[in-house]
Amino acid sequence: MSGTDRTLSRSRTCGNAPIVVLVDPQLGENIGTAARAMLNCGLERLRLVRPRDGWPSEKAVTASAGALERMPPPEIFDDLPPALADLHAVYATTARPRELVKPVLTARAAAAQIRDRQARSEQAGILFGAERMGLTNDDIACAQAIISVPLNPGFSSLNLAQSVLLVAHEWWNAAHAAPDESRLPTGDSRPATQGELEELMVRLETELDGHHFFRNPDMRPTMVRNIRSLFTRALPTEQEIRTFHGIVTALTGGKGPPRTPRTPGQRD
Amino acid sequence: MSGTDRTLSRSRTCGNAPIVVLVDPQLGENIGTAARAMLNCGLERLRLVRPRDGWPSEKAVTASAGALERMPPPEIFDDLPPALADLHAVYATTARPRELVKPVLTARAAAAQIRDRQARSEQAGILFGAERMGLTNDDIACAQAIISVPLNPGFSSLNLAQSVLLVAHEWWNAAHAAPDESRLPTGDSRPATQGELEELMVRLETELDGHHFFRNPDMRPTMVRNIRSLFTRALPTEQEIRTFHGIVTALTGGKGPPRTPRTPGQRD
Known about the structure:
Two copies of one chain form a homodimer. The first copy, chain A, has about 270 residues and is α/β, with parallel strands linked by helices. The first copy, chain A, is built from eleven helices and eight strands. Chain A has helices spanning about 1-15, 30-40, 60-65, 65-70, 80-85, 105-120, 135-140, 160-175, 195-210, 220-235, 240-250; strands spanning about 20-25, 45-50, 75, 90-95, 105, 125-130, 145, 180-185. The first copy, chain A, has a seven-stranded parallel β-sheet. In chain A, helix 2 (about 30-40) links the parallel strand 1 and strand 2. The radius of gyration of chain A is 30 Å and the shape is elongated. Strand 5 (about 105) of chain A pairs antiparallel with strand 8 of chain B.
């Protein structure tokens, strides 16, 4: 039980991220894979209520792929109420509908609530039941709300770690995903300017004219637009523009690009 | 290969949900757990490129917990390009940043794009790499975009099934979760009416007055408001209101509720 004290003292310093409470977990392996899923999503505090195969567990440590060694030691409890005593809000995860009048949230909605509670310095806990049967109705009665992860109703059985992952990942996403849902990394190069793209386009059109690419003059404007459209849609980098200048140079027999975007022949 | 034809004919009838492509998967168990995660989220079409331990795989079937038996048989390919030939858009999942100029989406943003493509009858595929190394840069070059699942940067290693689950679940959520993020099921009972709640509140206040609960008359309005507030916030059912009437009756020595919400003693 000395580990418990270390956990508590460390937890004070690492904020009030939700605590994961596994009730009656059976296999050590499943505790380990659940811990791995927690740490994948930035959750570090784990409580175990009546772990069937005892604790500590070598199998859990192995299955956690290093996660348990980086987390504070799990706190062990003989009963659920003491495991919840210091929490301000408890969320119970269930796969099956229950005969209980209690708000049912998606994991995403629960994650938003938990983030709000954290901002008010409230400590939330998330309960997960045993591998086969899940939480009992008595367990769930201790919770303010139910988290029901939406899944294919024809095939909804998840293992423990998968359940933990889906719920924990919504919590992680609630803080981290929104600001940057889509981005285009360009490595060492920077995005090309419109001017650089224009220069390439003008050069390309000039070369295409010189090589009689546009056989039907009526179609020229449409074809030019389509070529430009492809390049603009691709959001090229400055490096890629230079690469394409090189391609044009190579295909046209080695002449470099003109110094200005004007058509060749003008003023020199 | 007869299974391939059956797959294709069935796939035509089951819509254009994204196809999951596992490139160079190693252990049969991981293919099975990936299939389980797919079916959890309503995805049924699986393609395997160069499965190391061959196909079919008993270990995969066992690990899939029934999923592979309910899905069309996976299609097997010797190389990646033919596995992608009929797709309109390919998304590559990666854990590590790559030296490629390609849009990077969260799984959620990719799910929204894929749903849009489905609405236009386009077929998307999602690539997952081998257990340890993930996809090669050559594999990724075949994709229009990268899906990067946001995770704890200090501990981001996911197993194959966990990766499939997170990405597939965003696709499932994109169609199923939004309309109903929070609800309060009330089982056989219906939510109480405001009138039923009011009747209980009036009765309770009367009993509390009769039992000299409100010692400081100045505080009575505040205390009454707080009691009401707790009951209204709880959104009680009609059954729960009746239960509380029973509680008041029991605590006050067995007198039933008055017939009207008026104070007892009036008119009888």
